[in-house]
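Quick illustration, no need to memorize.
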Amino acid sequence: QVQLVESGGGLVQAGGSLRLSCAASGTILNFDAMGWYRQAPGKQRELVAIIGSGGITNYADSVKGRFTISGDNAKSTVSLQMNSLKPDDTAVYYCAADRRVIKKFRPDYWGQGTQVTVSS
């Protein structure tokens, strides 16, 4: 019913920048919130940033001040501007969408992921 497709991943040097984008398609194109997760090898998937109704945003402590999430939930798009990248940011980044946020961001849909690799 819904597909999320990420783009923008790649290989960059530490201190560089990347911009990830995600677009949704399908029968549901209006979400309460969209966000980004990431998963590094051997680590659990972690929430990086979300953007909800009214443009309210939330970030993981590890990326505050470096990453900026933006988008339009009604238009089912979301982007993640990543600046001052560190090797620790290396991970597969997943776009996610929550149809209806009741209390917490609990994605109903997931993208396939895009690899971000930051070299030293």
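The mean pLDDT is 94.
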